[in-house]
């Protein structure tokens, strides 16, 4: 089970690193814009991402 968690963590780090590696200026601009979201907007985006991830995991299994 630990192998799955470490594999998932490694994959997440690879995916998170693609944008700053390939498009550093666009990534920086996106982070600047995202930092200006209100708390409610950021929470909605976080909730949407978490639910999407759970649905993807459910669909795979």
Automatic annotation (TrEMBL):
InterPro entries, alphabetized: DUF2065
Keywords from the named record: Membrane, Transmembrane, Transmembrane helix
A Pfam family matched in the record: DUF2065
TM segment ranges: 6-23, 44-60
Protein name: DUF2065 domain-containing protein
